[in-house]
Design brief:
By secondary structure, this protein is an alpha+beta fold. About 50% of the residues lie in helices and about 15% in strands. It has 11 helices and 9 strands. Helix 1 runs antiparallel to helix 9 and helix 2 packs across helix 10.
Length: about 350
């Protein structure tokens, strides 16, 4: 099979794998007054680019993380976040003009520039988001300067019409940068990002990292066989405090999930779980797509055959399809088994003591 044909097959199956048609995934930026401007759709990669994407996935190249962690609804909220990311003025913050600011007064000046600009922000009130707090990060060990430079380039590309600032935190293991973007642009267009926009941002951030010699990828979780969504930071902190004895109860969502799992174990009836069916169906689709890509590659030259082997191994090493509910059910079942075993041991101990007393 010729390289052109192989690349065509990789592109066709790659599009199904990485860019399946999904409705309502892109947000629409909203203009003041109600008129809407559709967000730009991300162009699908070329055949060679799709081949590189498959190769990065099979080699398990580090994945970028881009997350909206919140956003201020007034200047008081935004100033508090500026204080946080600048460590109260101790860390440099850089704005959309490339100017670097350091110190408490500089942070205060940034607040005033946002509040009193052409499109101002009220100090109080919670009508709508006036800023988006975005975290961009890479795994521990990634060159921090390269990550910061990539974020700078990413912000210039994506938010050139907005006021923004960013700060790099170097006091944690993983390399990450906090980016704050004013919601309303200079032209009155308001950001309204959705899931599809976040994926596009991930791809752009990863590309900027690769331009700086850093291996980075931005693939959907299901392509990599990842089933569970990352736990929300607020839930994680609450549960961590509960386990440390600092709270009386875990997060409500976690407690509810555990109660559902306990009810299933006690009743002995497996509950209907549409999410599980969707996850299993998505896994089969991914395996089929990767399988077709591997079959095409194995007909090529030595490099193609090597990539076919890597793709096959990648699919074989995908983690088991297990939802969080399944893990809670298994944990509850083991807990009950341990409890039953403990009761048996205690009863046996009491029986032995009773026998000794009658002697």
């Amino acid at each position: 099979m010729t390289k052109i044909i192989i690349d065509g097959i990789i592109k066709d199956w790659g599009e199904q794998l990485y860019y399946p048609p999904v409705k309502g995934q892109k947000g629409k930026n909203i203009r003041s007054g109600g008129a809407r401007k559709p967000a730009m759709a991300a162009p699908k990669p070329s055949a060679p680019a799709t081949r590189e994407l498959v190769a990065r996935t099979a080699k398990k190249v580090p994945e970028v993380m881009v997350k909206i962690s919140g956003g201020g609804k007034n200047m008081q909220h935004i100033k508090a976040h500026m204080d946080y990311i600048s460590r109260n003025g101790e860390i440099e913050i850089e704005d959309e003009n490339g100017d670097v600011h350091l110190g408490k007064e500089a942070v205060r000046d940034m607040r005033d520039a946002w509040a009193k600009g052409k499109i101002g922000i009220p100090y109080e009130g919670e009508k709508r988001k006036e800023a988006f707090n975005i975290i961009l990060s890479m795994p521990a060990g990634t060159d921090r300067q390269a990550v910061k430079d990539a974020v700078r380039a990413f912000a210039i590309d994506q938010f050139s019409n907005h006021q923004y600032l960013f700060a790099s935190h170097e006091d944690e293991k993983h390399s990450h940068v906090h980016l704050v973007v004013k919601a309303v642009g200079h032209d009155g267009i308001r950001l309204n990002p959705r899931k599809g926009d976040l994926q596009f941002w991930r791809e752009q951030f990863a590309e900027n990292l690769r331009d700086r010699g850093i291996e980075a990828n931005a693939t959907p979780r299901k392509v990599r066989g990842i089933v569970r969504k990352p736990e929300k930071q607020a839930v994680k902190h609450i549960n961590r405090d509960f386990e440390a004895g600092k709270r009386k109860a875990p997060a409500r969502v976690t407690e509810a999930q555990r109660n559902e799992a306990a009810q299933e174990v006690v009743a002995g009836v497996k509950r209907a779980n549409p999410a599980q069916d969707n996850i299993s169906a998505n896994r089969k689709k991914s395996q089929k797509a990767f399988g077709q890509i591997a079959l095409a590659l194995v007909t090529g030259g030595p490099e193609d055959k090597q990539l076919a082997l890597e793709v096959t191994r990648f699919v074989q090493q995908m983690p088991a399809v297990r939802t969080q509910h399944q893990e809670f059910v298994e944990s509850e079942r083991k807990r009950l088994e341990r409890k039953a075993t403990k009761q048996v041991v205690q009863e046996q101990g009491r029986a032995v003591l009773g026998t000794e007393k009658t002697r």
